Amino acid sequence: xxxxxxxxxxxxxxxxxxxxxxxxxxxxxxxxxxxxxxxxxxxxxxxxxxxxxxxxxxxxxxxxxxxxxxxxxxxxxxxxxxxxxxxxx
Length: 89
Prior knowledge:
alpha+beta, globular
């Protein structure tokens, strides 16, 4: 599901039409659970980020409309930040 490219982790999403929404989110959860410890935020930070995103007007169907990411994945990655001009986290 991912590959290393010049030191960056790149998520290659499956085609959504080939699986149900539930299957896709199960795969996303499994991907997050299998992130290396040094890449993943701690649980408290992850939950705090998700709470902030849940109140954000840019959240649509689990995706950030500013960058197109799934917020669960962005929130789980230590090096990621909120993409808004005035970052929320």
